[in-house]
Design goal:
Oligomer: heterodimer
CATH architecture of chain A: Orthogonal Bundle
CATH topology of the largest domain in chain B: Rossmann fold
CATH topology of chain A: ABC transporter involved in vitamin B12 uptake, BtuC
Largest sheet of chain A: 2 strands, antiparallel
Number of strands of chain A: 4
Distance between the termini of chain B: 28 Å
CATH superfamily of the largest domain in chain B: P-loop containing nucleotide triphosphate hydrolases
Number of helices of chain A: 13
Strand content of chain A: under 5%
Order of helices and strands of chain A: HHHHHEHEEHHHHEHHH
Number of strands of chain B: 22
Shape of chain B: elongated
Number of domains of chain A: 1
Number of domains of chain B: 2
Helix content of chain A: over 70%
Helix content of chain B: 25-40%
Chain lengths: ~325, ~500
């Protein structure tokens, strides 16, 4: 029997293939491996943040602090490296730890005080964004040798194609995300939590630990995304990555994850990010369209996917009945 | 069996919640290899006892011993580890996960921290097949299967924890007949393997079919423990309800003789709904009070809801001689209202009263809705109406501007009654109109029902209090296990008759 749970994933992958094919027919020079790789280069940070967000949404939560944590990471990194002269080898682990602590703090508040994740992470979003300006209200440009090297190094692939260091990091994160989600107890507990928190509790699963870990992981992914974003922008700024949490949520949903929790795949999120990238690429190839058309296309796609998910889940109910 | 050691023994269990004693001196024993039914009406303390056993609640006083050792658990997980597994009425599994995962989650087979899916699926398949005779695709999400299969998966999960005691809390409430038989087959097999099973159900037939022993609770108190074979049904029912038969006074009932011959107002023919109530016939005449009697879960409310069109029947027909005089079918609450059927639902807090509105506003609500929101009723007229009904029904305090939430339960109930009476229904359906209100208010509502019937209104009266049904009804339809089993009219109405019908003897 064909397993219906994979339908949203197939739709996402199919949509990506379709868009890429359409772009390839319409624009010369579109059909190449490098175009796909550029999608990854430009969206590496989004991909990393989206992996963390996938687990959060699968567990039935939401994390609105992603964009702010990215901005705060760029700011702290830039300030420490540039203004205080700390070595990157110290700064990077430090900002990653900061993201993890920030995330687990939100998770703990959500769990112990039984507050909706929406409001807790909304508070986290304002807090992290505000902290950026405490450090500096202006852009801090980074000219540290390690960062510029990380930004400019290209890894050569056969066929003359290249990727950045960030892409490698992002792909490793995706691989780890898939492993955690499907092959570890923690990952499965997150799915159970998203399916029914009450049941998870009665089945004797460690609900609190899982919940806090999910937000910890999302915070960690956000700060790693912030590090990669720093490589990409070579600066720290309080206005960086505004609205990225919403792009991430969009990517996760387009990737077939249910916002109600319990259902979704990290690999779907990968394609969700790629679809957003391909839309941007098509619009830049078109040349005459403003980049805001990306938003319109993503908006329409989101509608499409939400309706699709509703149809699939009501179809499931009809089947059972 | 009695000379054997019980695997589980609870002695003198008391559980107090602030201001309420939920359990008082309850004893319970469970032997290996038996099915023990825990019986009692709603609020008798069955769920509380189970929650004590599974570590959801802690006890105030008393001792629990499991295999001779003191059993103290603080969470469902600890209870499971001690060998007590529970399958709840609402399947408490994760519908989004696969069948295999639902059985194994938290205990997945792993190697170096990596879940071994193949091994897990294979073991789940074997477990289901060998112990529960269930051959299904264990990789599909649980929600793809019927509630019956989900129930079995829940049992499989319980068995997989090396359970010694299996608690089945109303496992059959959403299963059909053949599914129940499948479940019973499995229960017998498990019993044969030495498992102790605590079985909670509202279905008497099922209790006698599967149980070896019965413990009865009433109002949080221990009534007794009996071997099932030595406890006649009628005894069981009277002990649950709390009336020894020989103590019952025969209640003189004012005969409403002519009424049963009265013109038919509503008639159900073969009306039924799968999983709720089996097809039944029921006629309600003009000015007649028809009572529905039966234990909790016997299908009383379901019948009432079908009469109002609140649930869609999947067989049979309901005809109603409406306001226009002609007969017509009722398919939705809207149609029911238009035709003059009013329904006071069981739960006034959630389905009837609007807390933050005044008595006046609550009373005119249904009439206003009936007229349409644009043909408003003038404030003056509203006040007149409110005053009239406050007087008529003796609502206290007699202040139409009082907020309803500050009224007592009985007075809230009267406000709801006023709301529906105002629409001048031909048929009034009352589902548990006196639950949770004091005796004085109860008597007043009963009197009112009789008075309305005297004025020609037909009433369908549902109540879990048998005495009350007996007092107001001209005719009683007795329900058991979701079937209308008997209709008792006028001269034959007596508590004994009805109880016998409920017990099915």
């Amino acid at each position: 029997m064909f397993n219906r749970k994979y339908v949203p994933i197939f739709v996402t992958v199919g949509l990506f293939a379709l868009m890429f094919a359409a772009g390839s027919f319409r624009y010369t020079g579109f059909f190449s491996l490098q175009v796909i790789l550029n999608l990854l280069i430009d969206n590496a940070y989004l991909l990393i943040a989206a992996v963390g967000m996938t687990l959060v949404i699968v567990s039935g939560g939401i994390d609105l602090s992603v964009g702010s944590v990215i901005a705060l990471t760029t700011m702290v990194s830039a300030s420490l490296v540039q203004q205080h002269g700390w070595p990157p080898a110290v700064v990077i682990p430090l900002v990653l730890a900061m993201g993890a602590v920030f995330g687990s703090g939100m998770g703990a508040i959500i769990h112990y005080f039984k507050i909706q994740p929406f409001i807790v992470t909304l508070a986290g979003m304002f807090l992290a964004r505000g902290l950026c300006y405490v450090i500096d209200i202006n852009t801090i440009t980074i000219d540290n040798a390690f960062y510029t090297k990380a930004a400019q190094t290209r890894i050569h692939l056969p066929g003359g194609n290249t990727v950045s260091v960030s892409v490698v990091i992002a792909l490793i994160v995706v691989a780890i995300g898939i492993y955690i989600a499907h092959y570890t107890r923690f990952g499965r507990n997150a799915y159970a939590l998203g399916g029914s928190e009450q049941s998870a509790l009665l089945m004797g699963l460690p609900v609190g630990k899982t919940k806090i870990s999910v937000y910890l992981l999302s915070g960690l992914c956000s700060s790693l995304a912030g590090v990669v974003f720093t490589f990409y922008m070579l600066s720290g700024y309080g206005m960086h990555a505004i609205g990225t949490e919403l792009d991430t949520i969009a990517a996760v949903v387009i990737g077939g994850t249910l916002l109600t929790g319990g259902v979704g795949y990290v690999v779907g999120t990968f394609f969700g990010v790629m679809i957003q990238g391909v839309i941007q690429t098509i619009i830049s190839f078109e040349g005459t369209l403003s980049s805001w058309w990306t938003k319109i296309a993503i908006g329409l796609l989101l509608f499409l996917f939400i309706v699709l998910q509703r149809l699939l889940s009501s179809g499931k109910a009809a089947w059972k009945g | 069996m009695a000379e054997r050691e019980p695997i589980l023994e609870m002695k003198g269990i008391c559980k107090e919640f602030p201001g309420v004693a939920a359990l008082t001196n309850v004893n319970f024993r469970l032997f290996p290899g038996e099915v023990h039914a825990l019986m009692g009406e709603n609020g008798a303390g069955k769920s509380t006892l189970i929650k004590v056993l599974t570590g959801v609640y802690s006890i105030t006083r008393g001792t629990v011993t499991l295999e001779g050792r003191t059993h103290e658990v603080r969470s469902p997980l600890e209870a499971q580890q001690a060998g007590i597994s529970t399958v709840y009425q609402e399947v408490n599994l994760c519908p989004n996960l696969s069948v295999a995962e639902n059985i194994f989650i938290g205990r997945e087979p792993r190697r170096l921290g990596r879940i071994r899916w193949k091994e897990m699926n294979a073991r789940a398949k074997v477990l289901l097949k060998e112990r529960l005779h269930l051959d299904i695709d264990v990789t599909l999400p649980l929600e793809h299967y019927s509630v019956a299969i989900q129930q079995l998966v829940a049992i499989a999960r319980a068995l997989n924890v090396e359970a010694k005691v299996l608690i089945l809390d109303e496992p059959t409430s959403s299963l059909d007949q053949s599914e129940v038989q499948q479940l019973f087959g499995i229960m017998r097999k498990l019993k044969g393997e030495g498992l102790a099973i605590l079985f909670v159900t509202h279905f008497l037939d099922q209790v006698y079919e599967i149980s070896d022993r019965i413990t009865i609770l009433r109002n949080g108190e221990f009534v007794g423990e009996y071997p099932a074979a030595e406890l006649p049904r009628i005894e069981l029912v009277s002990r649950m309800i709390g009336k020894a038969l020989h103590l019952l006074e025969e209640m003189p009932k004012a005969p409403a003789s002519a009424k049963s011959g009265a013109e038919t107002v509503a008639e159900a023919k073969g009306l039924g709904r799968k999983g709720a109530i089996e097809p039944f016939d029921l006629r309600i005449g003009q000015g007649e009070v028809v009572g529905l009697a039966g234990l909790l879960g016997s299908g009383r409310t379901e019948v009432a809801r079908l009469f109002f069109g609140a649930d869609r029947p999947d067989s049979g027909k309901l005809t109603f001689r409406g306001k226009g005089g002609g007969t017509r079918g009722i398919q939705s609450p809207r149609q029911a209202l238009d035709n003059g059927i009013a329904f006071c639902p069981e739960n006034r807090k959630t389905e009837g009263i609007i807390d933050d509105l005044t008595v006046r506003e609550n009373i005119v609500l249904a009439l206003q809705a009936h007229r349409g929101w644009f043909r408003t009723i003038s404030r003056k007229r509203q006040e007149e109406i409110a005053d009239e009904y406050i007087r008529k029904l003796n609502i206290n305090p007699p202040n139409p501007e009082h907020l309803v939430k500050n009224l007592s339960g009985g007075n809230q109930q009267k406000v709801i009654l006023a709301r529906w009476l105002l629409t001048q229904p031909k048929l009034l359906i009352l589902d548990e109109p006196t639950r949770g209100i004091d005796i004085g208010a109860k008597a007043e509502i009963q009197k009112l029902v009789l008075q309305l019937a005297g004025e020609g209104m037909s009433v369908l009266f549902v109540s879990s209090e048998l005495e009350e049904v007996l007092r107001v009804s001209d005719r009683i339809a007795v329900l058991r296990d979701r079937r209308v089993v008997k209709e008792i009219a006028d001269q034959n109405i007596s508590q004994q008759h009805v109880m016998q019908a409920i017990a099915g003897v």
